[in-house]
Give the backbone structure.
Amino acid sequence: MVTKVMQIILSPILALIVGVFFLGLARKIMARIHWRYGPPLVQPVIDMIRLFYQKSVSHGRMFDLGIILSLAGSIVVILFLPFGRICPLSNSGGLLVILYIMLLAPLGMALSAGQGANPNISIGISRKLILSLGYEVPLLLVLLAVMTRYKTISIVQVVNAQQNTGWSVFSFPLFLSGLSYFLILPAILGIRPFDVSSAPQEISSGPMVEYGGKYLALATIEHAFALFISIALFVNLFLGGGANPITFFIKMLVVFVLGICIHAVFPRFRIEQAIKYLWKWPTLLAFLGLIMTLVIRS
Amino acid sequence: MSLVALLIIAFGGAFITYFSGKISPKLRNFFAVFVSLVLVAIIGLLYGKSPNVTLYPGFFGIPIILRLNMLSWFFAITIVGIGLLSIIYSLEYVKKEERLNYYYFTMLFINASMLGTVICGDLISFFIFWEIMSWSTYLLISYKGDRAIAAGFKYIIMSIIGSLAMLVAIISLYTRFDTLEITALASQMQTAPVDYTLFILILFSVAFVIINAFWPVHTWLPDAHAEAVSPFSSVLSAVLVRKGMYGLYLFMYVILGLNILNKLSAAIFSFNNVFCWIGAITIVFAALTALLKDDSKRILAWSTVGQGGYMILGVAFATALGMAGGTFHILNHCIYIALLFFVAGAIEHQTGGVRDLNSLGGLIKKMPVTFIGGLVGISGLIGVPLTNGFVSKWLIYKTLILEGYPFLAFAAFLGTWGTILYGYKFIHNIFLGQLPEKYKDVKEVPFSMQLPIILLTMMVLLFGILPGIPLKVVDAIGTSLGFESLNVSIWWGIASETGALNTINIFSAVLIAAIFVWLLFRSATKSVPVTQDDSYAASVHIPKDKYHYTAEFYNPLYRMIKPFLRDVIDEFYYWIAACVQRLCERVRHMYVGDVGYYVTYIILFLAFLIFVQLKWKPW
């Protein structure tokens, strides 16, 4: 019981540290690729603390509640995700529940931002939702392939199965799915070339435009969690999870740095181009992966 | 005798309401609410009982049987429950309309006939109640006139096709087995040859699939739901459409049973499998079509089509889990879609009949209760955790994945993601963003309209957090149809061997996390409330009504998917209708009104007969 409570408290904190570290690291790596020096690694932390003390504007109750719901949703997802061996709420519904609770964060954000009455926000959210429909098609096929392959809907069992049979990204049908997941990872993370929803130069950062002060701080934390969640999901499903938090973290770091390298050199897609891309190669790979899985199973 | 009394109250109440309306509108309203309340009370009291009444001589000497079991109780409680709420909602909603006696009468009459279909125990009374239901529904769909009449006409034509198929099957059953009693048929059908079973099943399925509006016979539903009066749209979408599901239960599981259904397969096709794929196509097609719609009620109507797909996926899959998921989804859909139609109706009522999503906006501060109702309803429709829709969808997905049908699961998931898009559009375009100048004085709806919204909102959340309560009933239905029992507990959700769903855990996690974040939020510097003029326009004057991005909300996506989503089926039906019309027109031209022509026709016909007789000698 005590260990469980400890885990419940510990895992969001660990996730926060990792996520915020990634945010700082991203800026540093980006800067180096662009031949700049870049801000210090702790810059996001400094920003966040500063933001909490700054003045901000509110557009109404939903504007406040939405952002709270969004962050709370992210925290809950983290309780369901195994982080190394830490997984406080592992047996409350499995991958399907994770998939659905992952909705709470963007939904809360969309509701909160929606009350901002700023057309840029609406455009940003509409793009975000279209993009999410775009990457959900391959993502769902990928997740279904994994669940069908291991005949379970529990993410803990997927991780355990990989301890015996090796990483699923190196097993036969699932490497197609793994490759597909990696190809859509930038879209899930919302980084370039898929940063259509928060395009700063076109629509003033879209949903973020009305956020200032503590709202921006909470949104940044939420972003850090979102980074953590989508990468941790990949590591758990395809890279065999981790025997302890350290190895898990190292795996995450490798995936993240690869993603950032893509982010640093690609220009932004238009939303139609993004959808066309997402529904072409990643979907094809994921589809093949699922069919192969089915064939092998039967 | 309580079932006879129930029917007498239901039908008699409708007539009393009608005639009391001649005396005073207040009395009529009182009776309408009172009758519906009594029906809810009676059905509530009958929980767990199984009365059985046989009436001699029923119809042409065939006895009429009334009975209640878990399955029919389940459907009956949704009928009377939604019936009561929609009557309460109507009190204010239709106040300014004309012909209110007629309105309340048909409303109650439809409820009574639906109640009849679920409590009768033989096919002849089933058919009679079914027909009463179809006709009275037609009358109420076309209540508003104009476009509603066309919509009602579309409905009644498709409904008649279904009824005729059903009638043929019933006559065939009667001539073969000499009984129409459901329990007797159930035992007789066990020995019937496979092809005959299939023939009967297909005929009945035609009727039920049409009323359920599955693809490819969905075309009547969007028109009818959108054009009907909002409280009645709720009834239509929440319970009436699902009478088709009741029919499928009755024939697939009560009369035939699993053993026979499993025999109905050839190669990879089986009867259930075909139904599953119909469900999958329905889900995806409806979800993507709803994306393109700009009419609040039409979006909801399309979502009704789509959610039907989930039900049939679960039910046709015929495992204990899938069955529970499908059955539970019927209840959940009934709750949140009624809620959403009430919300759409409230908006329509307060803004003077506006259903166009592109011209609304910013109503959250004007109509907070309606907003919460809409938000919770949409969350239920999407299946956000902690709303009821999540639990049933979870059960269905889990069945599909574990049984090895990931592509069906994929269709179901894709439908959900489509639902997120149009669900958010519904919320955003009505409640969020800029408030147009003309809606400055819009007020919240009166309490009698708020009450159904509040009650249904609470039920969506209650059944989402404590799904064990309704699942007890759902489980009892499953076991009565011969499926194994699920391990359901009221407090701890579902705990089957293959993985549990613990909604209490999720609920407490979300609650604690939210409280924690809220405390963090509170402790930071306080924010200043501002308006759109202040922040977006930076205190510069901006033209009103122009800064709300709604029209073609998902424009890039529209352009991509629109060519693929032509409703070819609907166009095909219209083409058939046009052909029939042309044919009739030609036939009409034969009747020129001149006796000479008619004599010629008769002589020609006689000549033809004589020729036939001389040539082939058939007589």
About this structure: Chain B has a mean pLDDT of 84. The CA atoms of residues 590 and 601 of chain B lie 9 Å apart. The longest strand of chain B covers residues 52-59. Chain B touches chain A through 71 residues (CB under 8 Å).
